[in-house]
Amino acid sequence: MSVFNVTKGRLESCLISDFKRNRERAYTLIETARLMSRHQKHLARLAVQGLIQKPMGASQGGAPTWGLRSYYSESQVREIRDILALQSHGRPRKDGLITNSNTPTVQELTRRMGDGILTYTRTEDGRFIPLWSESI
Description:
Blueprint: E1 2-5, E2 10-13, H1 16-22, E3 26-28, H2 29-36, H3 40-49, E4 56-57, E5 70-73, H4 74-85, H5 106-112, E6 116-122, E7 128-135
Antiparallel strand pairs: 1-2, 3-5, 4-5, 6-7
């Protein structure tokens, strides 16, 4: 199979079985922000600060440029989720624990990416908690 590599600007060939085994989905900055329950400007700010990787641009060399879309791979989205899960919101707590309610769990992220089935149950106080997960 022949695939055009946008970042290198050339046509590359590989086996279809290798392509199917190693491919990953690509998510734009807006899609990644929706997966993380954050605003896209927040993710862009984190990338400028160096806390997360910058997205791969759809230009030669992979540099993000104005007017062209930039993408995160599946593995990068999972890394971003892990980084955001360790960040605390608001003032630090006296006990040193992290207050972070916006970041999805690993199961929720997997479900949002379309890879599994997640069932929720409603508690007496009205919150929804994940109950059961299945990988497809």
